[in-house]
Amino acid sequence: QLETTIDDMNPEFFERLLKELADAGALETALLPAQLKKSRPGVILRMLCPRPSLEKLIELLFLHSTTTGIRFYDVNRVSLPRETIILKTRFGKIPVKKISLPRGRTRIHPEYSGLLKIAARLNMPLSEIEDKVKLEWQKKHGSPKS
Q: In this predicted model, what pLDDT tens digit does every residue of 17-63 receive, in sequence order?
């Protein structure tokens, strides 16, 4: 895990920084609001990274942010098995994350980009499309357990 604090950078620059970090192997990135030295508002930038990407990610942080120091720690991570599948629905095909839970249970999560395309095409709320996609999954495969 890499972590740094930033209180003097143009907030618009975070978009490129986070993209560069993701492209270089950062697994997860988070910007957390924080009160820093001299009571200045800022952010804690925290990311998980594979050991082989560590040096490259540190280099990118120094190049694309105003930070002058970075902390890194070893962390453990547990994740559920998941795969992206294409679900055929009455709205068309949509990518869905199928997540395998303990005890043989399954949860699905329709991809935002797919929901957005369908919602725009049909002029419907995203939440309504998501509910209908999950209902179709439930009818075909059983309830998506939480």
A: 999 999 999 999 999 999 999 999 999 999 999 999 999 999 999 99
Residues 6 or more apart whose Cβ sits within 8 Å of residue 96 = 84, 85, 86, 87, 108, 109, 110, 111, 114, 133, 137
Task: Tell me the pTM.
Answer: 0.71
For residue 99, the cross-strand partners are 82, 107
Do 33 and 54 lie in a common domain? yes
In the chain, how many H helices and how many E strands? 4, 7
Considering 15, 40, 72, which residue would you say is the last residue of a domain? 72
**Are 66 and 121 part of one and the same domain?**
no
- What is the maximum span of the chain, computed from C-alpha positions, in angstroms? 58
Residues 86 and 106 in one domain: yes
Q: Which domain holds residue 11?
A: 2-72
